[in-house]
Specification:
This protein has 370 residues and is of the alpha+beta class. The chain has nine helices and 20 strands. It is elongated.
């Protein structure tokens, strides 16, 4: 039997890559996670809302629907067992116009189809009784939604991988892989000390660079690499007291969940993300967007003081669809797609990827047959 340096190599030390490494470690495999940045979780995983999603909106039977619900349940349990901070504060999906009330019923039905626990439709008066600063025409209550410490979570995953004899190696870009005749791969890693290592299984979850990484794997058919798009979202932080204790979400916009409100674990109010398609990884926040944010926020919080909104940060989502195109599912592509046994390539892991990460990791391990 061939001897390998590691049983598995994972490309990308964001939440999903680390969760995949954790799932493989739990099965007794030795895992090396390669990360091009100087620290874990510096890409998509550090520039999001840190929201634990309930799983309300996603199409019946989709990977997003299934992984979000399974991942969310597993995530709270993981946070409890690893002392990772979270606040299961609940969420209100609010009708910000009379014509939105009908959409609440549709979302409620989809949420129940997706096996989301505790969903309830309430009147505007009931919603305002829960959140007195709110303006709405009706709402859904999602009690399982919340916010959590995503960096604490990723550090706990890293600790589990290392405790299992694996390694999480930062500042080490993946530069390519070659399938071995007898099975497995030779992986080329760059950085200050370039190296070559062998593994039985290779798993790619590098977020925004998923397409570029796939293109460096010998034998990966170019026609099986989906076109990627950058979906930028900006956030504004409120200087002052947070107006709501629960997450507040208007109905989803096309291609995303839209600008919403959260109170982070530090007690501050944050609004975002909006959605703009961009061609480069530009993380700047345009302060001139303050007015547009305030106008949107007034739909559910009329008293928002525009001057108290401060530009905060931006994130970029690895989308598989462009503007006005249908939003596709996660892609977990195995040998049945690309023809390379032992390789799992992940594409389009945007929201709810963070919530879904533990379920994605389990699915990857199962698909690899370990």
């Amino acid at each position: 039997m061939a001897q390998f340096d590691f049983d598995a190599v994972v490309v990308g030390a964001g939440a999903v890559g680390l969760a995949c490494g954790y799932a493989l470690t739990r099965r007794g495999l030795t895992v090396a996670v390669l990360e091009k940045e100087a620290a874990i979780g510096q890409g998509v995983s550090s520039r999001n809302s840190e929201v634990v999603h309930g799983g309300l909106y996603y199409p019946t039977g989709s990977l997003k629907a299934r992984f979000c619900v399974l991942g969310r349940r597993a995530l709270y349990a993981f946070c409890d067992s690893h002392h990772v901070d979270y606040d299961r504060c609940g969420k209100l999906v609010v009708a910000t116009a009379p014509e939105d009330v009908g959409r609440l019923g549709e979302i409620l039905q989809q949420a129940r189809t997706n096996d989301v626990e505790g969903m309830e439709e309430i009147s505007a008066a009931q919603a305002i009784a829960l959140e007195p600063e709110l303006k709405c025409y009706g709402a859904l209550v999602s009690p399982q939604s919340g916010v959590f410490d995503s960096h604490g979570y990723m550090l706990a995953l890293q600790g589990e991988i290392e405790a299992g004899g694996g390694a999480v190696v930062t500042a080490t870009p993946f530069e390519g892989a070659t399938p071995l005749e007898a099975g497995g791969f030779t992986v080329r890693a760059g950085g200050a000390e370039p190296a070559s290592l062998t593994c039985r299984y290779l798993m790619t979850a590098p977020g925004l660079s998923a397409q570029d990484v796939a293109a460096t794997i010998e034998g990966f058919p170019a026609g099986k690499i989906p076109k990627g798009h950058y979906g930028k979202g900006m956030y504004f932080r409120l200087v002052g007291k947070a107006p709501f204790s629960r997450l507040i979400y208007p109905p989803p916009i096309h291609g995303a969940l839209g600008t919403h409100y959260r109170r982070d674990l530090g007690g501050q109010a944050v609004f975002g993300p909006d959605l703009h398609y961009v061609d480069t990884l530009d993380y700047s926040v345009d302060p001139n967007m303050r007015g547009a944010f305030a106008d949107y926020i007034r739909k559910f919080w009329p008293a928002v003081p525009e001057e108290a909104l401060s530009p905060d940060y931006a994130g970029i989502r690895p989308k598989l669809h462009g503007p006005n195109e249908p939003q596709p599912d996660f892609q977990l592509d195995g040998a049945e797609v690309h023809g390379l046994p032992g390789l799992m390539a992940l594409f389009g892991i945007e929201s709810p990827g963070l919530t879904s990460s533990l379920a994605i990791g389990e699915a990857v391990a199962e698909r690899l047959g370990v």
